[in-house]
Predict the structure of Fibronectin type-III domain-containing protein.
Amino acid sequence: MKLYCGGLVGMVWSWALLMGHLLPAYSIPMGITTGYPTGETLPAYQSTTTTTIAEYTECIEDDYGTVLKAGSTERCKKVVQIDPSGCHLDDPITTFILVDTDADPGSVTHQPHQVVSDSEAELYLQETQAGSYDIYCYDGRNYTTNTQYRVNVGSSFSDEPEDLRDWRCASFNWETLVCRWLVTDNPVKTVTFPYLATSATPRECHCEVPTCPEVPTYVDGAPKYTDGVPMYTEAPMYLNEAATYSNGVPTYTDGTPIYPKAPTYPDDIYTYPEASTYPAAPAYPETSTYPDAPTYHNGTPTCFLTCCTWTQDSGYEPTYPNLSMVFLRRNALVPNDLTFYHHADYLAIVLPGPAEEVSLEVVNETRMVKVSWGTPPALWKFPASITHLLEYKRQHQDTWTMGATGQCQGPKCETVVQLDHWWTQYTLRVRLRSGAATMTLMDDGWWSDWSPLSVLTPTSLPEVAPAVGPGTFLVTFRSPLRDLTFTWRPVPTLLHNAPDFTYFVSASVSTTRVTVTNATVKGTCFTFANLSSSQSYRLEVVGQNSEGIGHERSWVLVWAARDMPQVPILPVVIIHQLQEQQLLYELRWSSSGAGHGYTVYLCSGHLGTSHTCQ
């Protein structure tokens, strides 16, 4: 099968298009020498056409240019084709230089050469520093010309391909396996052949995805993207919003496969058996006999992989316990492939799909709600069970409350949660994770997407009484009668428990409890007019709604006029300036009698005795 990439790594050298283009000269002093290797017979600046050069081996080539080993004591020879209009080989001071593509333009090294013809030269290449270089022709005076040849110099520390970094896999809904890794940078292109070890034949990964999905990682205990962008605060969708499952295969849009995000897992999240307990690694044949061998271009695969995906149709076996990947890596400096193995817990890396067909039922007209859902069909026989988490919040509220958590196996699951208030719109949501995945953070990336739904809790009688104090009333004398104004604090809307909430107030003789008058009001005060000054009264208030009158009520006792203490004498308010914008109010009065206690109220709203204290 042919391999495809979103962009060929390296550069295709269309030198014919750019040959002869003159670039500004680098800062190279006059009087440079060509630096011929051992065996030269002519001094610098003399025609190189008669120079005697020691024999050197041909330079190694791959699809991305010439390959050198950094720090090698041996030079290699390379023949380059030159445009005579831009590079004058007949000029005795013409030389060739290697220019680091990532370094300062003045960072160059001179390479000796021998003229073959006016358009061809044989270069003798050597470089001590790893990197990618362009070969320039330098006329020794004012101009350099890019020959459009690339030289890649491998690391001097290790020419061999290194193991992969940050390898991690996620099995989405136990149907699609996505693995991702990072490779160590090396100017000499190292190609990777990833294989999934299965119970049958190793399955190769093909380069079909233009870009790899993002994979969260951990930084100081908090999940972050590898590029430093903060990760989502809620669990990621296990598939792109535009993708849906059809028999376990993601739906494509615009012909491009849509792959989910594969969360990372910290080292301590799984328990791996000792290496000796793993089944013997499959015997891998020679690279040329691997199944579905990649397409080569001049002996080199045409792309470099950093992620793979398999479905059950392409070889992923969800129940196979030894989930392993085998990586064969090679580059032009190493004659043989190097093999690297990576293993994962096949159950712990499962990222379930969202709960399906979520429904709820109010239990016996209470605030208890039973939530039921279906497990994704692919997980009906999942051996590690499925952990669920249910959260809820009131409508328009920002903060979620954890309602229930537990584990379940099989097609159907349910849990019960008691909500906080009657006659309130709630949003509930449930999500799933593998029971084998130890939870490190609430949003560690290993939860499924949320499955939300809404419910309006049943109505009920009011359950709380309006708040009053011992002096929350006002007496206005109209001898021989008086008016009693009764005030209370409003019941919060969340505690109305049903529509049409009002207050039912009544006044009764305190000794006989005979009701004198009553009323239904919407506000927080009521005036009982023309009551006797010689009687003591009990003033009561209770909430009521469409379901009826509540059972909890509040009351105050107003004595007969003869039993009431005298009004405090000459009350005054003194204002103290503490700071620029801070005042202290002091209330003073003269006591009207010994043994009296006083309750002080701070009223807001209108000033004056004609208005009720709020």
Notes: The mean pLDDT is 75. The two ends are 82 Å apart (CA to CA).
